[in-house]
Amino acid sequence: MKTRYFPSNCFRIVPVQGAEKHERSERMQIINQLASMNKGFLEKGAGRKVVNPTTGEQEYRDVPHFSLKLCKRDGKIHAYTNLPKDKDHLLKTKFEQTLYQDIGEFRMEEDNLELPETNLYAFAVKGSHHLAIDLDGSPKIKELFRSVDHGMYSLTVKEVVDQEEKRDQLEKARLGLTTTKAKVWHYTKTGAKATAKMLYDFWYDGEDEVREKHQVALQQIKKLLPKKDQKQPYTDRKFASDNNKYMLVEALFLLWTDDEGKAKQFQADLQKLMTELQGENRLEVVKVKPDLSKVAKGRIHYNLPTMCLYQAEISKFLLLPDVEDKDFYSEHLQKTRIPEVMLKPGLGALAFARELYTNRVVYMPRPKNVTEIDSYVKATIAFGEQGSGKTSYIENQILETFLAGAQNETEWRRYGRSVVAFELADGKMIKNVRQHIPSWARKNVVILNHADTENPLPVNFHDVIKINKKSRSIKKQIADTETKILLDSVGDDSKTVAVERYFKAALQASYEVGKGNLIDALKILKDQQYWFQTLQKLEKKKKRNLAKALEENATDMINDPSVLKTIKNRLVPFMTDEDFINLIAQDENPDIDFWKWTNTGPYLVLIYLPGSGQEISQELRKFLFTHYFMKIWMMMLARERLEDNKRKECLIIVDELHQILDQRAVQNLFGALFKEPRKYRFRYVFTVHGWSSFDEAGKNAEKLKRSIKDARPNLVLLKGGDDFFKSMADMLAPYDVKDFTELMNMEYCGIFRIDVAKKTHIFMAKLIEPVDMRLPMYRQVSLEESRSMANPLGRPRKDVETKIYGIEEKEDEKTCQPQNERNLEEELAEITGGSDFLKAN
């Protein structure tokens, strides 16, 4: 006969850590629901044998089943339940209410279990239906999970259809009346006993003396009577009350392992636990072959061993998830919800996280209008210690923005956006990003690799000047900025007036009428003839104020001979760095075009500044970091001349921001750093370790912190951001430090504060998985290949040095050496060490 099971749904049960500790009742309330599952369904035909009108086959329409499964994986026990499906969800609602009473805060999500058959060992608990277990025992079923990596405990229950009939069956089984022969013999003895007792009482009623004389005859009669049952206190309790409801129970234990020895040990351990629990019911662990589809759907196998338990016995087999038990998977109370608009995928939407509860991807939605763009480009700061996931976060930000989910070149050109990203580590980030870029987008990938010192890139501000050619003050701004960058990079704590005044003016003159670099500025200060030529050019260009400043500076330098010496002491040591000279003394390369890269395309610009002590010096690294940072800022400001609708969104990734927080050029614009980019459509993402990173700013540290607090940027708070969380608590409500601390027990999780469409959303989430796990890999790139990649926009070092140190092959009158063979130290000594200029004046 075919069994038609009651329909059910499988749900995952996730305990949620609430704000207050949940007080449980002494008895599990869910058992009351298990003992009354049939109510209402028997009237609708459940529990009956019927003939299928279509097939003519007799079938049994089963009553509802409940199944609880505990699955061990990834080091945690996960709970699942199969609940009967009814039209009005009445049973589900009742179970949810009683589960809340038993385990506290939880959430349920529909989740179909996948149960592989490979390397599976399955065991069932077999017991006599009419005998009872020891209720004083404390089963340690959870202990079994400690010794396995992947296992499951499945307890499936259904309420008995006819309780009176079942009680009668159990009583008869207890008496051994399981066959016709046994029943005939039982009732024969019962009849004989009754007859004998009646005759005995009739003949000897009241005659005690006679009764004593016939004890021998009485003992002979007793031999004909049925023997009395042995004492069974546990089983007596099972039948003691009519309120005891009986349930058919299937207890299965599944283990996945390729080690047969482990499976045998698991069976032995399980048998030991059952023996301790069995009481008067001999519980036996037997190996079985279940139908995994039935297990997944929470259905009892009628061909496998089962037990018949009542409520008190069920409690010994029913192990509910516990939020306070670290062995169980649990989640933290989500005090807020992620808006639906951030859970919708689509071209142009940028994935950056996953919802804690449902694992759904969280996106920055593509802006629909100008108002939404303002929120979209708001600056973001990611706080977190090393290993918290910041690098993975920015890799995803880069690829999501540059490709914008495009599947082909047409989509990419429409939805992709330009990205400029700094790499200050070992080059691994650039390697990871390059591997996931399809062939049709590689032509717009630009790598400025400063680890390649054999093909140095020209580093200057000439492109900024070209874009701002109508500005009368741009060269002064650049001279001021570059002077500060140079001094702060070499660690000049004195910030002397000499350099600030004299060198800055000379650098501005160099940009106006000279070569426009730091070497040229030093030459103006030293070389009388070159200084005079510069003055003439300034006069001719009608830069009279700057020419006058140079003249006044020259007069003051005559009166104070220590000025030039001070400049030399501060700057010349840095200028003896050949790599530095090879970068700054080159002519402009028009193909290095940040204006084009950030305003057309999409383009991906990866700026690689190798770590300290590697290919370049720490001072040069800091100089380049700040140089590019300020160049990008100035390019952004130049967008002011563009109409709003032509200002394309552009992402700027600044990893390890704290490395340039000691730079005055950066500090001076910090207040505007989180406000100005929005109107120019530059979206900055900064990463720092925590507030301690701002100690690099010295006495201005508090000022920089206040700038962030006042700007209220987007925030990504990962592991290690505790100090920041405490100081920004008012921006992160309703979450508190306790929420953040508890969340840190989970890997790569954090609290996010994100603006979308002019609304601020604060929520818990986990970072989206690394790019290697979620995006297609189009080619493999080794780390060494990525680090040693030649600069196509650079020039061969030999050619660069030849042009710097002497274009023509001619003999020097004093040294009789070809001009182009003179080394850098000699050249600088001539520029900075001579005193002809001072003597002549």
What's this model, at a glance?
By secondary structure, the chain is α/β, with parallel strands linked by helices.
How does this structure look, described?
Among the domains are: 2-163 and 245-317, Vanillyl-alcohol Oxidase, Chain A, domain 3 (3-Layer(aba) Sandwich), CATH 3.40.462; 176-228, no CATH class; 490-574 and 808-841, no CATH class. Helix content is 41%, strand content 17%. Strand 23 and strand 24 form a beta hairpin. The radius of gyration is 42 Å and the shape is elongated. Residues 532-560 form a coiled coil.
Question: Which strands sit side by side, in order, in the main sheet?
Answer: 15-14-24-23-22-16-21-20-17-19-18
Terminus-to-terminus distance = 118 Å
Contiguous low-pLDDT stretches (5 residues minimum) are: 808-841
Named CATH topology of the domain at 2-163 and 245-317: Vanillyl-alcohol Oxidase, Chain A, domain 3
Helix share of residues? 40-55%
Total number of helices:
37
Mean pLDDT: 86
Largest sheet: 11 strands, mixed
Rg result: 42 Å
Characterize the overall form: elongated
* Proper CATH architecture of the domain at 2-163 and 245-317: 3-Layer(aba) Sandwich
Number of β-strand runs: 24
Briefly note the structural class of the backbone: alpha/beta
- Any idea of the CATH class of the domain at 2-163 and 245-317? Alpha Beta
Strand content: 15-25%
